[in-house]
């Protein structure tokens, strides 16, 4: 029997009828291609229909701009092959804008290998379209590019018979944009959908005796700008089955810390800092336990103290913490799941000092190791701290003992007639810095030596390397989840093996999506 609710394909005349059809998206794109070829639709109608199919509803640059199915991007490419240049330019202009607006859109394009498809079409593209394709390649390459895609990019610039192909000079700008990344190279991506979170295994007890610190780099990436006041995405939730424990969630742009001693009754503190969407922040939440006086909570953002408060009561329980989530609550409901990205996630069994947290911030969002080997700091510290460390190494290698006097110095000693004055002259003449190159002399100068001390939050100075790699940070790691150390949906616990284990059994967590 014929489906009376679905009109025959030959009866579809307008694009708005296409989106209402009860069929798969690839067939909808195919029908739209047919309408374009017979010239029954305007450019604006095509653009609106394509965007509607991409985002799974009515497109809006503020409310609905996230690509729902990555395969629809490939269908869009096939459709654009049947479109005139001016229509292609309209679609690509809007598409580039939504790529820049959401990391999830960039990830969707990465999954289908959009760079390879674009490079295959670049040589035949009209100039107005080619410029947009090259701009999009720069956006995509600065997010992620594979070795195969990089080879194709170089191949597109390879000279043939002594002549560069079209657009080769412009493609050089794509290479320039590749290193310009804001944030870590790898991260956990939280889509903001119901049920998406990192679930931790049960902890036999919570490390509160010496205080504890939660630390990570994160980026809020809300699906739209309207529901941000209604939703309460959770950064973490560490609780027992009785509802006792610690949570941190966002209300708008503010972070609220909660400590529940009894279910339904607890202590809350609003961090005095406004977190902007789509911007990376390093956060460290320090819980300081005092046995005889009030405990404290400190929140440091980007290495600086943002907020602190006293906590009148301590969360103390012998029950295992079996409701531990990063990016959600145990209910996993849509209004409380985190939407954005996180880098490596740390929990320390110590209340870290401001100096330690400031030093961790200097390592940058890409750091994902165990603070065990100081040579790794040369890969992560900013260039000014690298130069300082090299200067200290040169200073330590310089011999403090004066060289043996030669015949000429003995002669000057006899002439001067003053042992004290001569000793000073010999030291000045033969001090190693006198014979060093200008660069070495500059490194050995007191002004540069003072620069080796990094300023802390209170203006005091400290040595970054000694603070980071004295063994205290490494031995205090309770758990550390690294976006590189994953196997399917399993996220491997990456703390040093010799550290005390707080877990009931396996320490590895599970990524739900």
UniProtKB/TrEMBL annotation:
GO function terms (MF aspect): protein kinase binding
Please report the organism this UniProt entry assigns to the protein. Answer: Anopheles christyi
Q: What is this protein's name?
A: Neurobeachin alpha-solenoid region domain-containing protein
Q: Which Gene3D superfamilies match?
A: 2.60.120.200
Kindly list the organism's lineage. Eukaryota, Metazoa, Ecdysozoa, Arthropoda, Hexapoda
Q: Which SUPFAM superfamilies match?
A: Concanavalin A-like lectins/glucanases
Please give the biological process terms from Gene Ontology that the record holds. Answer: intracellular protein localization
What GO cellular component is one of the record's annotations?
Answer: membrane
Q: Which residues form a coiled coil?
A: none
Record-annotated Neurobeachin alpha-solenoid region domain positions: 42-178
Write down the InterPro entries for this protein, in alphabetical order: BEACH_Domain, ConA-like_dom_sf, Neurobeachin_a-sol
